[in-house]
């Protein structure tokens, strides 16, 4: 399977892509982008970040969705998406071979990539394309553009492995 793959929602996601500016709120901005795209919402990433700062009760225990004003947990993204009836889930150790067929089948895929040295960071983006020459293409809230942000396959695999190959996914819309 060396043919390029593009999400059937590529253009629609870019129409709603939000720019996070200098904030460290990629997950709330990515979440707002997806909710605005598929749930006909008008959410703003900065406002969603403030909401996600607060723990919430789900059953008997609180769900801590993010460390306030800093890092968002993958289950925090899933928790918010479930509020809008999206069937979201998160998982560790996702095989790289899973991504292309899932993307082609219309799954919304949000891998978490990052580095541990010299300064730790993690970043979530919405996967919208794969190309055998360019690698993995994303809708990236770090850039104020509606163009695909490309990460080479080798760079993506290293940075994704650093997060434990974490993936937030919506299987069906």
Short description:
This protein is an alpha+beta fold and 173 residues long.
What does this structure look like?
This protein is α+β, with helices and mostly antiparallel strands. It has a single domain, classed as Cathepsin B, Chain A (Alpha-Beta Complex). Helices cover 32% and strands 24% of the residues. The strands form three sheets. The chain has a four-stranded antiparallel β-sheet with strand order 1-7-8-9. A four-stranded antiparallel β-sheet has the order 4-10-5-6, with helices on both faces. A hairpin with a 2-residue loop joins strand 2 and strand 3. The longest helix has 13 residues, at 26-38. It starts with a strand and ends with a strand.
What key attributes describe this structure?
32% helix; alpha+beta; Cathepsin B, Chain A; 10 strands; 173 residues; 24% strand; 4-stranded antiparallel β-sheet
Beta-strand percentage range = 15-25%
The pLDDT mean sits at 97
User: Strand arrangement, largest sheet?
Assistant: 1-7-8-9
CATH architecture: Alpha-Beta Complex
Beginning-to-end CA distance, first to last residue: 25 Å
List low-pLDDT spans: none
Write down the CATH class.
Answer: Alpha Beta
- Helix vs. strand class: alpha+beta
> What is the count of helical runs?
6
Q: What general outline do the C-alpha atoms trace?
A: globular
Taking the sheet with the most strands, its summary is:
4 strands, antiparallel
CATH fold annotation: Cathepsin B, Chain A
Radius of gyration: 15 Å
Percentage of helical residues?
A: 25-40%
Number of DSSP strand runs? 10
**Element order: H for helix, E for strand:** EHHHEEHEHEEEEEHE
CATH superfamily: Cysteine proteinases
Number of domains: 1
